[in-house]
Task: structure prediction
Amino acid sequence: MTLSIATWNINSVRLRIDNVRRYLKLRRPDVLCLQETKCPDEHFPHLAFERLGYKHRLVQGMKSYNGVAILSKVPFTANHIHHRCGKEDCRHIEVALDVGGDPILLDNLYIPAGGDLPDPDRNDKFAHKLDFYREMAHWFADRKPASAAAKGSRRIAVGDLNVAPLEHDVWNHRQLLTVVSHTPIEVELFGGLMASLDWIDVPRRFVPADQKLYSWWSYRNNDWRASNRGRRLDHILASPALAGAISGHRIEVNTRDWEKASDHVPVMATFEV
Result:
């Protein structure tokens, strides 16, 4: 079967539910992972997703901030809500997708943005971000299977990871080396996360590292297309056991032009499982 998984920092699911509906009708991913839902669980718009066929849902939200959701046409089990860095701030949920045989473990992550000052001693938000990366790297490493054929070896991690790790994941590498999301310490910790499970960077399977690739454009740019000062903050990672299953990807750039657009756009990958 072909499995399509999309990730989107929606920046308020209730405010942008019409855009979510529009995207789901356009691309019909099997699974949609949202970040920054900014919605308490009791107010989550379940009915909208139910009507579109997303009958399997795991949400963890809070008022005004953060929040993650997995919305799926594919049944899932073993759903978990994970709390990170001693906080309960709705940033990591996990399910096991029932795709026949060995399930695919799916993590939806919203890693802290880190504020504006890239100094952990002077900026608690940045310190939190660095600690989150360190904790996730240890957590994934503890779950590394003995081999790609071992049970539980098929895993996908998606979300707004808030780091643009490569030179061409940002509009200007040199200018952004001192800007949060592309600083050397963040890139180093992103590398540690990647190494923890030998992750595959799915979009970069299709777009070489020497080509620009973005998923976020600031609201501060009046004409974001003309300036094109983007960053690739939204990621889809696959474990080595899925290396041969990766079949495609799409970054839905045009959603950035929609009314009430999020500053992030959906990123989708397909797998033959």
